Amino acid sequence: MLNVTNLSHNFGSYWALKNCSFSLKKGEFLLLTGSSGAGKTTLLRLLYASLPVMRGKVNVAGYDLKNLPARQIPNLRRSVSVVFQDFKILPYRTVYQNVAMALEVRGLNQIHIDRRVRAVVRGLGLEPRINTLCGELSGGEQQRVAVARSVVVNPKILLADEPTGNLDEELAARMMGIFKQFHMHGTTVVLATHSSELVRMHPEARQLRLEHGKIVAANWRGAQIFSEKIKEVHS
Ligand SMILES: Nc1ncnc2c1ncn2[C@@H]1O[C@H](COP(=O)(O)OP(=O)(O)O)[C@@H](O)[C@H]1O
Ligand SMILES: [Mg+2]
């Protein structure tokens, strides 16, 4: 479902990712950890084709991102949904409108859209705010709208950048519950977080730790630790 091989990425002379390799099967749940600046957002942006793959190989949901023509990007994004760190929701639209929009562009019928939107909004505890303009919501509520909008389309792969960052413990746990539910239904989830608490609470998840752009730790065999790779190269 997701294959990353020797992926490196630079911004000018700065290498934000160095030789990263890992793969995830359909339905696996990955916690991508590492302190601020480690390269988590850069990695997610590459997986979503919002940054071009320059070094290495990336295959996401069957798309080879290195050779992906621009006209294929909308197709990729039908399979891959993202919760951005900065939400990217529309402040002058209501919660309902923001969430429904993701389905409207796919041409689903109104009854179906309505049912799906209400179910997801309810699941995230946003029902009392459904007709509120998003600009009037708190940071935590906006974050939940962003999550609602990305899960409502039933993506094959869900990428989430620090989605629990602005939430108190109870809401964070509830949001994790939602991600878990999708994962249970076969969605592959990659969740970036700098919270060690979250990692401690989900020992069953695949975990991959980035430091200065390198994979320094992982808890499954589908990932290659940077130093092991170097040893291999030199042995
Ligand atoms: N567009 C950019 N231009 C220049 N440097 C960037 C850009 N995006 C990220 N970086 C740098 O790459 C490194 C990794 O950033 P990022 O992927 O955002 O880390 P994280 O999400 O783990 O905090 C940081 O040092 C950051 O300053
Ligand atoms: Mg980040």
From TrEMBL:
Residues 2-233 form the ABC transporter domain. InterPro entries: AAA+_ATPase, ABC_transporter-like_ATP-bd, ABC_transporter-like_CS, ABC_transpr_LolD-like, Cell_div_FtsE, P-loop_NTPase. Keywords: ATP-binding, Cell cycle, Cell division, Cell membrane, Membrane, Nucleotide-binding. PROSITE patterns: ABC_TRANSPORTER_1 (PS00211), ABC_TRANSPORTER_2 (PS50893). Its main location: membrane. It is a peripheral membrane protein. GO terms for biological process: cell division. It comes from the Bacteria. SUPFAM superfamilies: P-loop containing nucleoside triphosphate hydrolases. It is found in: Cell membrane. Signal peptide: none annotated. GO terms for molecular function: ATP binding; ATP hydrolysis activity; transmembrane transporter activity. The keyword Transcription regulation does not apply. GO terms for cellular component: plasma membrane. Belongs to the ABC transporter superfamily. PANTHER family: CELL DIVISION ATP-BINDING PROTEIN FTSE (PTHR24220:SF470), IMPORT ATP-BINDING PROTEIN (PTHR24220). Part of the ABC transporter FtsEX involved in cellular division. Important for assembly or stability of the septal ring. Homodimer. Forms a membrane-associated complex with FtsX. This is Cell division ATP-binding protein FtsE. It comes from Halodesulfovibrio spirochaetisodalis. The gene is ftsE.
